[in-house]
What we know:
By secondary structure, the chain is α/β, with parallel strands linked by helices. The chain has helices at 9-20, 23-29, 34-48, 64-84, 104-121, 136-141, 186-191, 206-213, 230-236, 245-255, 285-298; strands spanning 53-56, 59-62, 97-101, 126-130, 147-150, 159-166, 169-174, 193-197, 219-224, 240-244, 257-261, 272-278. The protein contains 11 helices and 12 strands. Helix 1 (9-20) packs across helix 2 (23-29) and helix 1 crosses helix 3. It is elongated, with a radius of gyration of 23 Å. The mean pLDDT is 88.
Amino acid sequence: MNLRRIDLNLLVIFDALIEERNVTRAAQRVALSQPALSNALSRLRHFLKDDLFIRRPEGMIPTPRALELAPQIRAALVAIETSLERQDFDPGTSTRTFTLQTNDYLASTLLPRLMQRLAKEAPGINIRVIPPNQQMVELLDSSLIDFALGSFRELPPRLAVEVIDDFQYSCMMNAGHPLARGKLDLKRYAAAKHLLITPRGDPVGFVDEALAASGLRRRIALTVNHFSVVPAIIAETDLIVTLPSRIAERDAALYGLKLRPSPVQSSSIFSHIRLVWHRQLGAHPAFQWFRELILALMDGR
């Protein structure tokens, strides 16, 4: 394809539509009128020989071709922006938005301290947090997120990873639960009804892998996507849950719940909190500054 035949501003418009899925909001984002944006979309459709977006009551729905192009166009635009940006990043005057993917547990422990620090050192910087999903790698590739924070399985070498904290796990139950007393061995543990917290929607967790290695299975009676709903459920049911000790200790004190050391040893994958970013952007001063800030906050500095 000859790039001299296309107005590269059309790619900026395409990217805005992918993000907003709405002509009005996309036009506002790129500082165009709605008719001008619609005209630009018509030109891009003609050039790429695809409808790209189909108007529906719920918004502008991208076609398969648009979804295929979206991460590549986004990555190209970010690469251009990064190349042209001033390299003397000043957090005190920056109005950049950093997008972070993490679960509600880590968000609740990190964000209060992060926002306090930003208010003092970088008052113009904004933070956007999105929940974990299966497309984390693709989102980093296309720069739709800047960092991911959590526990992850094997990642491609184009992503940089740093371990920033360790998890210890506890088993939490209501104070009247039979497992609140006596020896909590694997057999009693496996025989109980379990609640599974799975931010990404996985049907099983590391506990199931560990139990299977001992020839045991558990019943997962309830699966939820958020840590915040767990203590109220545990307080009112005969379910038990295995979760990071740091949040378990906080919630147990608030709800009068019983904690026992987890009888299951977590794998190294799930015993560490990792910060992940794309190597392509890791050397940029803005990304270096934000990464060091996250590391400092998780280290208690």
